[in-house]
């Protein structure tokens, strides 16, 4: 309790409230009187013709979405190889991070879509066509159901580990679709993943019952990046890694950053933070990534009257 009391006292002082013994009570009273700013999380699914089953995703809607006549920037936030549509919310604390950043004005109100496709690495490979579902089914369905900015200026993509690799691949393949990308501890291994990586056993990279190096290299980021460099659009990138990442991603991420920075100086950043390949790294740096990404996307814009909530 003493630790939390000292934090209350410091925050109360910074806000001009009484210090000392009454600081905690004064801050509690101020918080109770202040308007609550909190987003809403929805459980969603779509009937996927590609998969022949439902495809699940969660959506964060910023505070005020239900009443405003606005279209919002949208972030597609991808999980790691063994995750699902709840990972960023439960393990990554994305909802509270978004609430705090939006309430504090650090980022504009943003819709965040968190799809779930376990072990598929967001690629079309030797298993389910995960990229096809994401790009041809999920994106248009989100833009149909929700008021999002349905062009490049309002779309962002980010992810962790396998999702970080996907963010790089999607941005290099579709630079006309995304305003910026975030790759947190991205699994951008070259030439092959380490023996302990889940890529060695997950379905997209299996052939004849074993890991297929050709599939990995064909679906890596390098071939797409080579094509990306020949076209004029630039996708700003946020990249990070834990300093003791067990898969040596700090090295692989540095290679990605080096090549990006050579191609587009000043339009990529690389952070190395304390930690392993673990949720404290991703939850702890999500806010930093969101601030960078939002700086390259459109703010909310007025929506067409036909898309607005009815007036009461």
From TrEMBL:
Residues 1-23 form the signal peptide. Keywords: Signal. The keyword Signal applies. It holds the Pfam family Esterase. SUPFAM superfamilies: alpha/beta-Hydrolases (SSF53474). Coiled coil: none annotated. PANTHER family: DIACYLGLYCEROL ACYLTRANSFERASE_MYCOLYLTRANSFERASE AG85A, ENTEROCHELIN ESTERASE-RELATED. This is Esterase family protein. It comes from Skermanella cutis. The lineage of its organism: Bacteria, Pseudomonadati, Pseudomonadota, Alphaproteobacteria, Rhodospirillales.
């Amino acid at each position: 309790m003493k630790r939390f009391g000292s934090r209350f006292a410091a925050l109360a002082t910074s806000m001009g409230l009484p210090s000392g013994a009454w600081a905690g009570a004064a801050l509690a009273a101020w918080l109770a009187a202040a308007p609550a700013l909190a987003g809403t999380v929805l459980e969603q699914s779509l009937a996927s013709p590609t998969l022949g089953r439902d495809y699940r995703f969660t959506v964060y809607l910023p505070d005020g979405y239900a009443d405003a006549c606005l279209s919002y920037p949208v972030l597609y936030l991808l999980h790691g190889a063994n995750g699902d549509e709840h990972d960023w919310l439960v393990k990554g604390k994305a909802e509270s991070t978004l609430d705090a950043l939006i309430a504090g004005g650090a980022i504009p109100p943003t819709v965040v879509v968190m799809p779930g496709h376990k072990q598929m690495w967001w690629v079309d490979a030797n298993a389910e066509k995960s990229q096809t579902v994401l790009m041809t089914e999920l994106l248009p369905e989100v833009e149909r159901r929700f008021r999002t900015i349905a062009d490049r200026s309002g779309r962002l993509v980010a992810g962790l580990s396998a999702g970080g690799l996907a963010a790089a691949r999607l941005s290099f393949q579709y630079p006309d679709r995304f305003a910026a990308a975030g790759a947190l501890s991205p699994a951008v291994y070259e030439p092959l993943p380490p023996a302990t990586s889940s890529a060695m056993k997950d379905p997209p990279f299996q052939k004849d019952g074993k890991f297929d190096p050709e599939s990995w290299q064909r679906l890596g980021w390098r071939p797409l990046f080579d094509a990306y460099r020949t076209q004029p659009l630039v996708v700003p990138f946020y990249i990070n890694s834990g300093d003791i990442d067990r898969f040596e991603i700090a090295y692989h991420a540095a290679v990605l950053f080096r090549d990006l920075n050579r191609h587009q100086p000043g339009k990529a950043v690389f952070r190395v933070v304390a930690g392993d390949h673990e949720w404290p790294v991703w939850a702890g740096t999500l806010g930093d990534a969101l601030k960078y990404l939002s700086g390259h996307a459109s703010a909310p814009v007025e929506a067409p009257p036909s898309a607005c909530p009815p007036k009461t």
